[in-house]
Amino acid sequence: MSKPTPTLDRREVLSKLFPSPDDYLFISGLAGSARDGAGLTEDGDNLYTMAGTMGAAVPMGLGVALSAPDSQVAVITGDGELLMNIGSIASVANMAPGNLSIVCIDNGCHGETGGQTGHTSGRTDLAKMADGAGLASVMVLETEDQLAAAAEFLVEAPSPRFLLVRVTDGPPTVFKRNMNPAQCRTRFRNAYLGNH
Question: First CA to last CA across the chain, in angstroms?
């Protein structure tokens, strides 16, 4: 069975999924996910990007969620980055934090290295993998008319939540974010302590 052709623009999705981004601690993956997260939060103190550490966003988000149980934590990752460390979702499922959402922006390609076709444009289905790993709640967002239900899912569905967002292979959000790791670490620590 073939998958429907994506119609969602990744640059317009996160602001509808997270209308109050200040209420979250965000961990983003590298590259496009980092820019999308920076655009959502205006590169806010409550965002920590895992630039240069492919596959680390979900484990980092899990650690933050477990250590800050009174904060809502959201991971913004991409299909390629998640596949680099797919076993991390099994750890999330079994540790089962009650405050963690994982949003996977799935464009079916490797946008940072030339747009090569990725596994999820073929037979690989990350939502089925998340469900098989045992995550409490799994949803697929493919069309604009599902956005309101997806935003509600991220608030009301049992945690940990996994939202697969199938998007076009267009560019990520254009945002020049702070690339100084020491500054980013310090400001996220301050946000973490303020929300904790």
Answer: 45
Measure the CA dihedral 172/178/180/184, to 10°: -100
Sorted by where each starts, the structural domains of the chain and their CATH numbers stand as 10-126+138-194 (3.40.50.970)
User: Whole-model pTM?
Assistant: 0.94
β 109-110/116-117 pair status: antiparallel
Residue-wise pLDDT tens digits, 122-171: 899 999 999 999 999 999 999 999 999 999 999 999 999 999 999 998 88
Largest CA distance in the chain: 47
The single residue listed with the structure tokens 């990350």 is 126
Centre a 10 Å sphere on the Cβ of residue 43 and count the other Cβ atoms it contains: 18
